[in-house]
Amino acid sequence: MLATDQTILFFDGVCNLCNGAVQWLLLNDKRGELRFASLQSELATELLPSLGVDPGRLESLVLYRDGVVHQLSDAALGAGRALGGFWGGLSRVGALVPRVLRDPVYRLIARNRYRWFGKQEECMLPRAEWKARFLG
65 - beta bridge partners? Predict the structure, then answer.
């Protein structure tokens, strides 16, 4: 099984919005806490079903931390908290907005992300300096 001290953000590997978000997180994760894997990866296929998540449903980020999964806006805010500093604080403020208001906005963007931001034919390949931060 996976070491519980790793924080992994699972994302739609062909989504341009998701790939842009991952690149932004990599640039701003000064502590190097986050690891990344696509929802299309072997790791997602092996790990997520045992945690009650279908990796084939690509409409949500999935944040795995300490053996617990967070989805939708909770996953995005959790990734922001992992950055610490200003972005961590901003994510904590965002979490004060009730999930019943946050998740519908998240779902609207997720439903339209390919139309609004485009889609790639294959999962992105990370830059050489980021390769170690990507898992299976």
Answer: 68
Q: What is the DSSP annotation of 38-105?
A: ETTSHHHHHHGGGGT--TT-TTS-EEEETTEEEEHHHHHHHHHHHH-HHHHHHHHHHTTS-HHHHHHH
Of 1-10, 41-50, 82-91, least confident by mean pLDDT is 1-10
Q: Quote the percentage of the chain above a pLDDT of 90.
A: 74
Residues 6+ apart with CB under 8 A from 71: 53, 60, 61, 62, 63
Ramachandran category for residue 15: left, alpha or beta (phi over 0 → left; psi -120 to 50 → alpha): beta
Sign of CA dihedral 109, 51, 13, 97: positive
How far, in Å, CA of 19 to CA of 5, rounded?
Answer: 24
- As given in the structure block, the two tokens for residue 56 are 């084939």
Indicate the helix (H) or strand (E) that contains 106.
helix 99-117
